[in-house]
Predict the 3D structure of the following.
Amino acid sequence: MKFMESVFGLNYADLNQLLLKIGTQILFSIFILVAGFWLTGLITKGLKRLMVKSDTDPGLTSFLTSLISMVSKILIVITALTQLGIQMTSFITILGAAGLAIGMAFSGTLSNFAGGIMILVLKPFKVGDLIIVESAQGTVTEIQIFNTYLLTVDNKVVILPNGPVANGVITNFTKAESRIVEWNIVLEQDQDMEKVFSILKKIADEEERTSKNSKPFIGITALAENGIHVSLRISVKTPDYYKVYIDNNQKIYDSLKNNNIELKLNNEFKK
């Protein structure tokens, strides 16, 4: 005990009291962290359910819940550190002094945060839209604080930073109510074009999913060395686009072949 008094200047009772105080502060800090993180998860889940029930935009829902979760956790950590006796005023001053350097180091992250806000405000796309951006194509599943998540046709998840997404070229296949389905057909020379047009018109007229007040386009789009290029275009509702295209591929092929129309199989699907 004399050794403790000589080294730390404390007697046995004072040392016990100090250790008890430190232990209590540590336990309270751990409690604040555990309880705070648990409550944050509970609140964000409850808020998400409430926003879903009120038909809030899914992109705004994921953005706000992730933002609230991040800010809440930062405040909880600061509160826990304060409980340990750390003077947060000086700590915050140090953070403020380092803020410029940190901001420059994380300029990309700040850009992504600003990009996320721009996406939510300007709404170039929303959750559920099929888009192409940054050379990636897929359906938007989440718009978070810093990233946008796409699900590709082959079930891969593509994570894109919001900054480049907001400032890049975005092709949105879902935003318009209707889309033009186009079949480009290349025929051999010396075909009966009147018969070809009649066959294509019949197929277009039989398609019940064609948009109202729209007429199909059928015409020769090119006379080239490799053959006669004929195009059939009809307008359909956006959700029906792929189904209409696939359903009529076989119908066009069979109808032309059954009427002895010679065609070259280099028809390409335009996305």
Summary: The radius of gyration is 32 Å. The chain is about 55% helix and 20% strand.
